[in-house]
Specification:
Length: about 475
Amino acid sequence: MSETGPQKVTERMRVAFALGEVGDNVALNIFQFLIFTFYFCVVKLPVLWISLGFVLWSVWNAFNDPMIGYLSDRTKSKRGRRVPWMMGATIPLSIIVILLFTPPIGLNSDIANFIYLLVILIAFDTAYTAFNLNYNALFSEMFIEMEDRSRTGKIRISFVMLAIIFAFVLPTLIIDDITNKYNHPETLTQYQMTGVVAAIIIFVTYLIILKWGVREPKEFSADAETALSFKNTMKGSFKNKAFLWFLLPTLGTWLVIGILPALAPLHLTYAVGIDDTELIGLVLLVMFLCAAASTPLWEYIRKKKGARMCGLIGIAVWTVPILLFAFSTSFEMALIFSIFSGIGLGGGLYFYDQCIAEIIDEDEIKFGTRRSGIYYAVLNFLIKGSAIINFVIIGFVFSSSDWQTYTPNPGVDTIFALRFLMGIYPLIILVISFIGLYFYPIHGERLMKNRMKLTELHDQKRKSIS
């Protein structure tokens, strides 16, 4: 990096940085896709115990995520503010992904399995947050120019989709009976094998990004010395009206993304009537392949209309297909509607990185210090909080429709419960998300003024360290 100019972004660095999305999303989506089905169907832990575990997990999240973000913004080291956290989380997270699927089932105790679930949720959350939060914070710090963000964002989305596809397809290739419908004794071992393969992918991709994909701009490392107190940091973040409006579509998008993999095995098996595990994986594969393929379309819309409009169109396109997907009655119907749902999903994901970077830019203009860590900490809390909300909703609906324990007796009420959770519930959430993003204020003339002020501020920071 030059002492008098911004960091030069090479294509190799851009690709290596974006590759971090593979490990990051394999960890998150293996967790989201399998954690509920595994503990509900294989461990046979009652759904209310699982819901309680996620509620208690949320208490930890409320403390853990903001604190890691705050400490990250204030970290001083030769490697900068973000990289030390990412290095420290790599090995623990790889191990924890394996431990997700090694509960003490042999004890035949709901309490023992519940305690194990709670401990492993907290351990996963801590290690995942330490890497993911700092990795995302670096995006807005390494790639300042809108063109860099757009090009890198497109590559990131492609890798996100690759990771999500892998996270959905890998289990269906290894696990013969993913919902444990037939109680095969080898199902537990197959879940554990899935965790081992995922851990290897996480470890390798994290090493690649740490070696070739991250370089912290020196002018932001100095911001550790001017960081606000924890109280003022949190107060400033939650007084940011643009950020508050952005939280609605962010929470909504991740609520919908989270509910799809969590219930897809049960929904496609019992509501749609697909009895082949590989076909279940194929439906999800097609959805996320279409999301990846639609990325150039959403990049084009962002360049022409801005990140806000890109998100609005994406959410609007997503609403109808997801409802039709939930009420599919055959593999063919589910496959067709998964295509259109995937296109909307691509737009719903693309606006996320672009908008939060704009919010952090404006915050830096106001306070003079780049506080990416605390903003991503709040978003991390919200994203993981979406899983908690989903599991509470699932617990309530399941307990009202004969799914309190894993003794499925599919009938009208049970099937409608699955369709409601996969279609009507996401539709309501997406409408609320659209409203929140509509009122997001950083666009047009305000965005252009921010770009000019930001350039001047960064020039001043680079001169101060020369």
